[in-house]
Design a protein that fits this description.
5 helices; two-stranded antiparallel sheet; single chain
Length: about 160
């Protein structure tokens, strides 16, 4: 038995479960933070669904809703363009957080902000860029996979 075969077997049994248990809480933590938290959470549940029935029950409806949302999002060109603009906006925000310009000082509910951006630096920038890459990649995949010709409308043949 080769080392590669052993590693694959270990990952199928133990590694995928351990990685799933790491990804689920990490995804929950990343939900409000800049980054692809939802994707990390669903990835963890997908790995755990290999081992647990409860994860399989959760994954089924998540998968159906994700496909419905993807089909809805690419049904018309304005939706596609708006989604693409959102991905580009995330990338631009990543550049802004990386550069870290000074901002005016202000207060929200007694919490002061400024003159630096909150959580400015390369870590936040990388999170925003990862989100942009994930968003644009999923948009391209959704357009290729689920975009119906003519935006889902039927065209009468002559």
């Amino acid at each position: 038995m080769s080392v590669g075969t052993r590693i694959k077997g270990w990952f199928r049994r133990t590694g995928s479960e351990a990685l799933g248990w790491v990804l689920v809480p990490l995804g929950i933590i990343l939900m409000p933070a800049p980054g692809p938290g939802t994707l990390v959470l669903v990835g963890g549940i997908a790995l755990l669904s290999r081992h647990y029935v409860w994860a399989q029950r959760i994954l089924g409806p998540l998968e159906r809703r994700a496909i419905e949302a993807a089909k809805f999002g690419v049904a018309t060109w304005p939706r596609i363009l708006l989604s693409a603009a959102g991905g580009v906006w995330l990338a631009v925000l990543g550049v802004i957080w990386w550069i870290g310009p000074d901002i005016p000082e202000f207060e929200v509910l007694g919490v002061g902000f400024g003159p630096e951006l909150p959580a400015q630096g390369w870590v936040t920038a990388l999170g925003l860029w990862a989100s942009a890459a994930a968003a644009l990649g999923l948009l391209v995949y959704s357009v290729v996979r689920w975009r119906e010709p003519h935006g889902g409308r039927t065209v009468d043949a002559p």
